[in-house]
Specification:
Elements: H1 15-45, H2 62-73, H3 81-95, E1 118-124, H4 133-144, E2 148-152, H5 163-172, E3 177-181, E4 184-188, E5 192-197, H6 212-215, E6 218-226, E7 229-237, H7 251-276, E8 282-287, E9 305-306, E10 332-336, E11 340-348, E12 358-365
Parallel strand pairs: 1-2, 7-8
Antiparallel strand pairs: 1-12, 2-4, 3-4, 5-6, 6-7, 8-10, 9-10, 11-12
Helix pairs in contact: 1-2, 1-3, 2-3
């Protein structure tokens, strides 16, 4: 009796399983290539093309975290892991400087503060008529006990600040020099030698009779530090680049992008021009509505350095999109000329009054 040969089992991989095995090989290289292309485009277009202002809202840490995730996922692409690793490394190399990471956080600033150091407090306060928040706002300002306050958004959601508002501000800070232009307020214990809002050239016509709040986004005050030393403090609030009330499927979204770009550019030029022609040491602080990933930072005046070297955090961030959300963006900046020593710099707690954290610095004038 002849025994039939056993039938070999079908060892072919089922189609569904084959697809599941192949998808990392296809997906990871594609994702790495797309992210690298996006990073290159961002480097080329941010700060140069008005439409890219919408893309500029990407949280800056993405330029660090996405390449790292792609590199970690390279092991899943098997035969193409080297390709993925190279693409991720290139994206990281191009994008790390856009991430907002503070690589100098360990430096500790410019040494111990001398006895005559100046405490500076800068803050986008938000609206001044938000019910009980106004009292908390004044408490935040008092607790700061600063020598110089650079405040932005001195305006009301309903109407404008009145003489009574200004009177209370003076009463809260007796002995301070009070300088108000539009939405900008500078308070100083130090004598004010000169005060001037920067005049932008080429600004579009104002809307809704906005007046000085529309026109002036930088207020310069020259402060007498004694002994013939003068510090020029620039209080800034640059126009926001887009309106969160409109989405990309709304025609108004793109109109507003163009309009905001037309407002921002003259303000950048006015700032660069004034700082260039200013012989005094300079401290510039305020809400620039500009993240570390935005090419608009190239428009900052030459010769200024970020005060973040005096921070103790590796990722300084000052703005959250919603109350209670993480602070992913740094919109608030402090920059100084080489003659200004920054001994400490931190973002403080706004106590729910504003969507911006406070900026607190200790500075002095050196011999650099």
């Amino acid at each position: 009796m002849t025994t039939a040969a056993p039938v070999a089992a079908d060892t072919a991989t089922p189609p569904g399983r084959a697809v599941r095995r192949r998808w990392p090989t296809v997906l990871w290289p594609a994702a790495a290539g797309l992210w690298l292309a996006f990073t290159v485009a961002h480097r080329a277009l941010s700060g140069r093309w008005w439409l890219w202002l919408a893309v500029d809202t990407v949280p800056p840490p993405a330029f660090l975290l996405v390449p790292l995730v792609l590199a970690a996922g390279a092991v899943m692409s098997r035969r193409r892991r080297r390709v993925v690793a190279v693409l991720a490394a290139l994206a990281l190399l191009l994008g790390a400087g856009l991430s907002g990471a503070n690589v100098r956080w360990w430096q500790g600033g410019d040494g111990p503060a001398p006895a005559d150091a100046v405490r500076v407090f800068s803050w986008n306060t938000g609206y001044w008529d938000s019910g009980g928040e106004t009292e908390t706002m004044y408490q935040v300002l008092r607790d700061a006990d600063a020598d110089v306050y650079l405040l932005q958004e001195y305006w009301f959601e309903q109407g404008r600040p009145t003489q009574a508002t200004l009177d209370r501000l003076r009463a809260e800070f007796p002995g301070f020099h009070v300088v108000v232009v539009g939405e900008l307020v500078t308070l100083s214990r130090l004598p004010v030698l000169r005060q001037a809002p920067l005049e932008p050239v080429g600004l579009p016509p104002e809307v809704a009779a906005a007046g000085d709040e529309w026109r002036y986004k930088t207020l310069r005050t020259d402060l007498d530090l004694g002994g013939g030393r003068v510090l020029s403090a620039y209080n800034l609030h640059l126009p926001v680049q887009l309106s969160p009330q409109h989405g990309p499927f709304d025609a108004a979204f793109y109109r507003i992008l163009r309009e905001q770009r037309a407002q921002r550019e003259p303000q950048w030029r006015a700032l660069a021009r004034d700082v260039r022609d200013n012989p005094n040491p300079v401290l510039l602080a305020g809400d620039l509505n500009t993240t570390p990933a935005m090419g608009d930072l190239r428009k900052l005046p030459d010769g200024l350095r970020d005060a973040a070297h005096a921070m103790t955090t590796p990722y300084p961030a000052s703005f959250a999109a919603r109350p209670g959300w993480p602070h992913w963006w740094r919109l608030d900046w402090a920059l100084a000329s080489p003659q200004v020593r920054v001994h400490s710099y931190r973002f403080g707690d706004a106590r729910g009054v504003s969507d911006h954290r406070t900026q607190e610095l200790v500075v002095s004038l050196g011999d650099r």
